[in-house]
């Protein structure tokens, strides 16, 4: 019975250590995650099977557990990364260090303070395991806002080489320090020297671990707020352009109104002379002049009006006809930055798709809402090769530094429990790109900026 219990305990310990390594890789190294549910399920089953087989082959040992976890973590890196997969396997060493050092503190701090060696204490081990799983459960059920904020912040974050090198060095230092502290009894040092070594090592490890976390999270926030600043600047620029166009439109209306009396006198004179054809020509000319005084597009929201009219000006210069059908509901609970993200990126993509290969260039924007559901549709002619990847849409060759507009739109839609979908279908022999954005306007974004 004890052998069975020990076998099960090793399997649970492997799962515990592997989960800790994955969390460190995600929240310290900003490694990607397994997004597909089927892949996650298959990965878990494969790791459990591999862990059981390795334990059976090794006859049950701690070293077998470490080997099993290392192999599974390397497999995780290979599955999640899109490049540098084999190089990423070496992450197991610094990541282990970031895990071993805190675990070593549990045994080493009491030893440094009291001289009592708690290494191998089963009650302490079970207590530590219980606290870990309790923390995981609490994080899963109550950490949703944190995970959403973290995912949003790192969506624009790319860790620099110096940051990664610093994390590598710090992780290896923590691994070495943790191992030395746990093996201090085998160094044959005097008790006083051993306790001092463990105490200094514990303090250094704790300080370095906190510094690493602070470094990563401050970097995340810095990059994210830089992105928000750039987005706000873009919105302000669009708004300034919108009101400049609006002011020009008002001037045209004033000039037209100033001359309206003379136009009426001229029409009266033509009517008195019975010049019906001339009156018809004159009225037609006045209608064209009047239509030119209203060049702005309106959809019921000042922010969206600013963005649409800025893109409208660009579209006119490129010979693209922009049409807006529908009105946004009043008192939207959607944040201004999210509106800017959705409309600006969608229209930018539509404008970029208007290549010389397309004969008739046009963009249609459809706005439909029912109760708390808002649907935005952007349509434009395109070529079949335009849609490549449903996760990161871009036709540019440099996909590493482009295609983030679609990711930003997805993130904005998800904040309102919505989604973004796109497809291409032929209309009268022309492939037309459809971008559909579904939002629930009564669902306020859970995150604040």
Description:
- The protein is of the alpha+beta class and 449 residues long.
- It is built from 13 helices and 5 strands.
- The protein has helices spanning 2-27, 37-58, 62-80, 85-88, 92-114, 122-142, 144-154, 161-182, 191-272, 276-292, 302-317, 336-352, 404-414, and strands at residues 321-325, 362-370, 373-381, 419-427, 430-440.
- A 5-stranded mixed beta sheet has the order 1-2-3-5-4.
- α12 links the parallel β1 (321-325) and β2.
- α5 crosses α8.
- The longest helix has 82 residues, at 191-272.
- The protein is elongated.
- Residues 387-403 and 444-449 have low confidence and may be disordered.
Write out the strand line-up for the largest beta sheet, numbering strands in chain order: 1-2-3-5-4
* Basic shape: elongated
Largest sheet at a glance? 5 strands, mixed
Total beta strand runs: 5
Helix content: 55-70%
Spans of at least 5 consecutive residues with low confidence: 387-403, 444-449
């Amino acid at each position: 019975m004890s052998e069975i219990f020990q076998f099960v305990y090793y399997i649970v310990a492997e799962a515990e250590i592997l989960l800790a390594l994955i969390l460190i890789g995600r929240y310290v190294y900003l490694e990607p995650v397994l997004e597909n549910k089927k892949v996650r399920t298959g990965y878990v089953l494969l790791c459990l099977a591999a862990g059981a087989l390795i334990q059976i082959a090794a006859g049950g040992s701690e070293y077998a557990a470490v080997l099993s976890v290392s192999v599974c973590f390397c497999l995780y890196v290979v599955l999640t990364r899109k490049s540098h997969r084999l190089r990423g396997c070496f992450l197991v060493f610094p990541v282990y260090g970031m895990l071993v050092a805190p675990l070593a503190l549990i045994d080493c701090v009491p030893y440094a303070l009291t001289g009592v060696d708690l290494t191998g204490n089963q009650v302490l081990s079970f207590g530590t395991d219980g606290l870990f799983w309790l923390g995981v459960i609490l994080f899963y059920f109550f950490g949703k806002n944190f995970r959403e904020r973290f995912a949003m912040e790192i969506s624009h974050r790319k860790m620099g080489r110096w940051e990664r090198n610093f994390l590598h060095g710090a992780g290896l230092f923590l691994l070495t320090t943790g191992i030395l502290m746990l093996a201090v009894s085998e160094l044959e040092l005097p008790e006083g020297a051993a306790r001092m070594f463990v105490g200094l090592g514990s303090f250094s490890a704790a300080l370095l671990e906190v510094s690493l976390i602070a470094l990563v999270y401050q970097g995340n926030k810095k990059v994210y707020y830089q992105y928000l600043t750039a987005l706000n600047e873009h919105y302000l620029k669009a708004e300034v352009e919108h009101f400049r166009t609006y002011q020009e439109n008002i001037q045209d209306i004033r000039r037209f109104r100033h001359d309206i009396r003379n136009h009426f006198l001229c029409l009266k004179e033509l009517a008195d002379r019975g010049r019906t054809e001339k009156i018809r020509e004159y009225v037609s000319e006045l209608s064209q002049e009047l239509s030119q005084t209203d060049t702005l597009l309106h959809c019921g929201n000042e922010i969206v009006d600013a963005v649409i009219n800025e893109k409208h000006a660009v579209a006119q210069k490129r010979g693209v006809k922009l049409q807006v059908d529908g009105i946004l509901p009043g008192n939207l609970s959607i944040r201004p930055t999210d509106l800017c993200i959705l409309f600006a990126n969608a229209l930018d993509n539509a404008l970029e798709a208007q290549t010389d290969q397309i004969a008739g260039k046009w963009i249609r924007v459809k706005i439909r809402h029912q109760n708390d559901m808002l649907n935005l549709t952007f349509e434009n002619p395109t070529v079949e090769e335009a849609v490549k990847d449903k996760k990161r849409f871009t036709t540019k060759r440099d996909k590493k530094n482009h295609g983030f507009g679609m990711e930003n739109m997805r993130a904005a839609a998800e904040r309102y429990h919505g989604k973004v979908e796109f497809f291409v279908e032929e209309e009268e022999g022309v492939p037309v790109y459809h971008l559909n954005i579904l939002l629930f306007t009564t669902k306020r974004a859970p995150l604040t900026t």
